[in-house]
Amino acid sequence: MRKSKFLMIPVLLWMALFLLIPMIIVVVISFMNRDTLGNVVFGFSLTGYKTFFDSLYLGIYWDTLVLSVVTTVICLLVSYPLAYYIANAAPKIQTWGLVLITIPFWINFLIRTYAWVLLLRTQGIVNSLLLHFGWIQDPVQMLYTKGAVLLGMVYNFIPFMVLPIYVALEQMDKRLLDAASDLGATRWKAFRHITLPQSKSGIMTGCVLVYVSTTGMFVVTDILGGAKSMMISNIIQSQYLGARNWPFGSALSVIFVITSLILILLFNRAMQSKADRVKEGSA
Amino acid sequence: MKKKSHPLLGIHSLLMMIFIYVPILLIIVYSFNNTRLSGDWKGFTFEWYTSLLKDRHVMEALTNSLTVAVISTIAATLLGTLAALSLRNLSRRWKGGMNGLMYLPVVIPDIIMGLSLLVLFNQMHIPLGKATVIIAHITFSMSYVYVVVTARLAGMGRQLEEAASDLGATGWKTFRYVTLPQISPGIISGALIAFTMSLDDFMVSFFVAGPSSTTLPIYIYGQVKRGISPEINALCTLLILVSVTLILLAQFFLNRGKGQKKHKTLPI
Lengths: 283, 268
Fold this sequence. Notes:
The complex is a heterodimer.
Chain A: H1 8-29, E1 33-34, E2 40-41, H2 47-52, H3 55-88, H4 91-105, H5 109-120, H6 125-132, H7 146-171, H8 175-182, H9 187-198, H10 200-216, H11 218-224, H12 232-241, H13 246-282
Antiparallel strand pairs in A: 1-2
Chain B: H1 7-30, H2 47-54, H3 56-87, H4 92-107, H5 110-123, H6 130-154, H7 159-166, H8 171-200, H9 203-208, H10 216-226, H11 230-265
Helix pairs in contact in B: 2-11, 3-6, 3-8, 4-6, 6-8, 7-8, 8-11
């Protein structure tokens, strides 16, 4: 049985070759330059990073951050009550609720995004209904707006938020709530001091998942936002597949990953200290 | 004592489910709508499904998707299971590192994975095509197989294996007759998840597919960018159906595995 340790070598080699080395190459290329044909030129250069500090790209980056944060917050606000409901429902509802939340996970996000084109376009279902009931006189432009992008993002990533929060709430020791109510705590107080802190890990996982997925998702902007709205992932994509400015695309990728990591760390820190304060307060 | 949830919570949850499912159901309904242009219901038809079958591009994309999914699933299932099995014999420090490495594809954004593989293939002068898509899919699918099989192994305990080797079974025999039967539900559900992931993947494939290796999601993306069409509704409906069936199957195998686990670990 000891020998089976060496069975891992092919897997390690695979992961090194197709996961680690490619990412290292991207970091290396981000410090290089390109020639007029778009080929990567060897030699150290900060051009890729300098280009990022162009006001155009900084603005797009800021927009991306805002969109991702707003998406995450909305997802959290609408998903928490749903996760809470499923976690506290009767076993039968719980099973079904869980199945219903898991299914969208496995429906391609391209398809889920496309569904909103059907709904939001000028001759689409929402406009037809509004016209039919006489609430509007002319079709409203809903597709290819920032609102449509936000809606598409929230729609796509709700399951990413519900599931981790559900798992955290489900694993919680429900006897704590009985104890709290025996000791005279109101339902709100019990929620605030027991349920919420206990579901912290789920909230954290959900927020990180939604945030990172939103930032990397160029398809939603592409399909629902039209050409006007751009996210940093759209720029990265076009630098690789269209403009062929790989050093710049790589620099953007590096910046994207590093800012995500920093935000996740800060968020982690904030959640941690808040939980500690709650603990100290109740002690 | 369990307090009933607030009625508003129930209403909110119901509305959320409607919000989540109405758009998806609309695609399905519209795929049977007997009109190309209008948003109104004009009667039931299978026309869009039959015209999919006649579309050369769709069929080519389907063939590509299935080829990639079958090959990458087989390889990812083997490698992922291998990784999960060998993890058990590692020292704690190596275990952490290995675990981190295997989880990496789940954690890093797809776009980063796609573009870094594109860069690698370019630097190695490997032309983009089905092979590059397969390699990419193996890399991320392997992680999902690994996660599922590891969970299964962790719930299993080693008593039966130890008993087998105490009774003189060779390493291979122990694996074949004791370990494998116990983890097979995990392997099957891991393989089903890998297959679905591969069939569904757009982001990574988009970067590493060549002109001759368009997969179904890439084809759908191209069409969707041009606007809506009833054929796309039909194609999306089919893809939804396949993914959901596969995942429910995977879930079924996972649960069956859990039932077995109880039986096998209880007597010891």
